[in-house]
Structure to design on (190 residues):
């Protein structure tokens, strides 16, 4: 089992609280380049994980969000994702923000593919909401005609970090109680 965090940073202008559009009606496609931990090969295409997809797997009490067979060896690839409360903030350009926690079995997460993702954010002026922020070119701009103000998200970057304390963070956030990682692993049998 491997634990990862997807982190992001971006420069915002007159824009705040940028987050993925991720609802049951309009789920966010979390696209990643991954690598099989058994054979070391990358799937031909980036994998797509949907937070609302549910998969049960034999010998695991967890409900996973992604399940696939390796294209090159008999290994099964599993992933479970949880959104953090992280968002891109106008005053946090220099900070990496935790966006997603990932638990993975059989795969190593290498890169986030943000090109086709759609985000939403709030204008600094008049609380106007922008629902169509896409990062195809790593940046996005609009113009607020009411305030004669350019609204921008620029230089968006992402990285995936291997992290061993995600269990604790994930379940601490859910239960409001700090659990020991070992106890949780035992309880959940994963
Ligand atoms: Zn493989």
């Amino acid at each position: 089992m491997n634990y990862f965090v997807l982190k992001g940073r971006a420069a915002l202008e007159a824009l705040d609280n940028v987050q993925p559009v991720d609802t049951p009606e309009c789920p966010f496609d979390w696209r990643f380049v991954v690598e099989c931990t058994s054979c070391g090969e990358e799937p031909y295409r980036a994998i797509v994980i949907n937070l609302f997809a549910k998969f049960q797997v034999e010998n695991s009490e967890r409900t996973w969000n992604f399940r696939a067979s390796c294209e090159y060896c008999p290994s099964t690839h599993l992933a479970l994702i949880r959104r953090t409360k992280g968002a891109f903030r106008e005053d946090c350009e220099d900070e990496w923000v935790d966006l997603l926690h990932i638990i993975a079995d059989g795969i190593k997460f290498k890169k986030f593919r943000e090109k086709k993702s759609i985000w939403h954010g709030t204008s600094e002026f008049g609380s106007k909401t922008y629902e169509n922020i896409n990062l195809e070119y790593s940046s996005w701009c609009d113009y607020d005609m009411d305030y004669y103000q350019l609204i921008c998200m620029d230089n968006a970057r992402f990285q995936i970090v291997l992290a061993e304390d995600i269990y604790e963070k994930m379940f601490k956030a859910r239960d409001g109680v700090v659990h020991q990682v070992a106890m949780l692993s035992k309880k959940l049998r994963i």
Notes: The chain is about 10% helix and 45% strand.
